[in-house]
Amino acid sequence: MNKSMPEEHEDNDLGVVESYSDSSNVPRPKARGREDTRRNLAIMIFWLIVAISVLLIAGRLLGVLDTQAVKDLASVVLLPIVGIFGTVIGFFFGSQSEKLP
Fold this sequence. Notes:
mainly alpha, three-stranded antiparallel beta sheet, 2 helices, about 10% strand
């Protein structure tokens, strides 16, 4: 038990604050760690989209891929990643709007 926190809360090694008085008994992550994770995930997915796009364009310009192959790869690989990126950005900005008065 951490001495600086009230007795009904315990801070474990994973950075999760557990509340024993909460009726749901669901551990809640610290807000700062959650925001950092969302930001890092958005940045990583953004650079993944950029890398895949550059590889597809370079493959087409170098003659390794024809136009139909680029379209197929973009629709199978790139579009789902863009959808995931949109979801991550939506959660990030959705959590930011909760903090507004």
